Amino acid sequence: MAISEYFIRYLQRCDHLSDADLARLRAMPTRHYQAAPGEVIVEPGPKASQSCMMLRGISARLHRLKGRSGQQVITALHVPGDFVDLHGFVLNGLSHAVIAIGPVEVEFVDHSELVEITRNYPHLTRLLWRATLIDAEIHRQWLVAAASLRSNAHLAHLLCEIYTRLNVVGAATDLHFSMPLLQRELADLLGYSPIHVNRAVRDLRDRGLVRWVGAEITILDWDGLVRLARFDPDYLDLGREPT
Amino acid sequence: MAISEYFIRYLQRCDHLSDADLARLRAMPTRHYQAAPGEVIVEPGPKASQSCMMLRGISARLHRLKGRSGQQVITALHVPGDFVDLHGFVLNGLSHAVIAIGPVEVEFVDHSELVEITRNYPHLTRLLWRATLIDAEIHRQWLVAAASLRSNAHLAHLLCEIYTRLNVVGAATDLHFSMPLLQRELADLLGYSPIHVNRAVRDLRDRGLVRWVGAEITILDWDGLVRLARFDPDYLDLGREPT
DNA sequence: CGGTGACTTGACCTCTGTCAAGAGAAGTGG
DNA sequence: CCACTTCTCTTGACAGAGGTCAAGTCACCG
After folding, report:
1. Is the per-residue pLDDT at A234 higher than 50?
2. Which residues 184-203 of A interface with strand D at a CB distance below 7 A?
3. What homologous superfamily does CATH list for B5-142?
4. Hey, which residues 194-223 in chain B have their CB within 8 Å of chain A?
5. Segment B9-64, tens digit of pLDDT
6. Could you give the C-alpha distances from A86 to A98, A135, B99, B216, in angstroms and in order?
7. Mean pLDDT to the nearest integer, A147-155
8. Where in chain A are all domains bearing CATH 1.10.10.10?
9. Where in chain A is the domain with CATH 2.60.120.10?
10. Residue B83 has what pLDDT?
């Protein structure tokens, strides 16, 4: 099976792709996979031989802490078009799992393909590199949010980011989107207790910023949400400034 | 001036360098620069034409928040050998400043040099890529620490990381090191108020884990500090597993 | 010697975690 | 169809962690 157009469009948001680059990408064999909610898509470990790209749904990077306290932390979310564990190709393996949030479709790419690209396609390599750095940019923004926002604004910031990212890839419009993250998982992501996440959700509802029923979320007041969260989408690198 | 051996040793910790790679690195012209404590070494902005490597001291990535509340967040620290803003080369510019923590020496490298390397030295490119991904790995670990640790353990985790990183590059031995971070800056980094950072410092002192006078820190009980912080240095990628 | 800035401490209040209990939806087996 | 279980969401009460204000100490420096 061939590589999906999602990821190609993702790269094209960053920079122009030559015909040779496009041909090389389309020649890349992939393996399609469908995951059930909560399923582990990628195990952590020292040696991976493939990496996966998101086609549909939302996935997350999950760090399980040692010491059987059961504590776990989510350090990243992924939407269609994201190359989820590309860093596992350049580093030696992963320190975290990748799990499905809701139903998910991905496609796996063999690392041998990536090795060949990094040897012979410097421009394509640079775009892959860049994709991993946008990831790191999001990490930094999450650190900023965690250090500077209170629970309600922190949650609001996450909603702004998810909607923006889903909207860019065409998976959400009209300020409405589906987010199958459980409140328990939001707690693992934001660093609060599940009960406090519930308080934050209630706060956003009481302020009239969102309608939130189950996994379906409608943003009622985008400007208000952005103001509360001090959200500035620059870090998502959505502009297409050619390198 | 030629590139410092610090960064070369940094790369060699990851993987073997061929003679051609070494020669290319040593042929790279650099500009030496000395910065005073608190000085801004790199300004944020959309277009950078050079990146800098740490020679001596400690520097930090500083995000200033909009809205003139004066709030700012530190999202990374750098020790000798680190390629501080290499990501500014692949992305288009930086979303944060780089500031000197205590007296600092760096050397700047022109992006045109890096462009040439990424075109003709795929193995070297991969090592540079890897360096930026270790950065991202540290970001993830900071997210995990922020989400799962209380203030005293969070501070302890930071001390473990800094000592380990300084020790690897030979800038700290015998569980003693110099850390010119002010408590106010620690607050910007850990996400607490300066006063609460002071409480965390006192807690570590009262537990007999550290002796901490001004910028001079001695770890009195490494195992105790590691246990409190649940510190696991795997994420720093210190092993030299060849790719 | 006065001024500045970092560090330190105490008092008080807000934010967040923990425990406990109940409401509602979804699935199972009789 | 109806108990029965399970899981999530929800809420209240209370305790502990962390923020804010205020004051005081100390080293450094002009």
Report:
1. yes
2. 184, 194-195, 198-199, 201-202
3. Jelly Rolls (2.60.120.10)
4. none
5. 999 988 899 999 999 999 999 999 999 999 999 999 998 899 999 999 999 999 99
6. 12, 10, 30, 40
7. 98
8. 151-236
9. 5-142
10. 97
Query: Is B91 close to A133, i.e. CB distance below 8 A?
Result: yes
- Contact list in A for residue B61 (CB cut-off 8 A) is 140
| pTM summary value | 0.96
The verdict on domain B151-236 having CATH code 1.20.1250.20 is: no
Q: For strand D, which nucleotides have at least one atom less than 7 Å from a protein CB?
A: 8-13, 17-22
Contacts with B, A 49-108, CB within 8 Å: 61, 63, 65-67, 71, 73, 75-76, 87, 90-92, 95-96
pLDDT tens across B162-186, in order? 999 999 999 999 999 999 999 999 9
> What's the start-to-end Cα distance of chain B, in Å?
31
- Residue B72 CA to residue A78 CA, distance in Å, equals 27
Single out the residue of B240, B154, B163 nearest to residue B204, CA to CA.
B154
Q: Is the CB of A151 under 7 A from strand C?
A: yes
What CA dihedral angle connects A192, A197, A203 and A206, to 10 degrees? 180
Find the residue in A nearest to B91 (Cα): A130
The answer to whether residues B153 and B230 touch, using CB atoms and an 8 Å cutoff, is yes
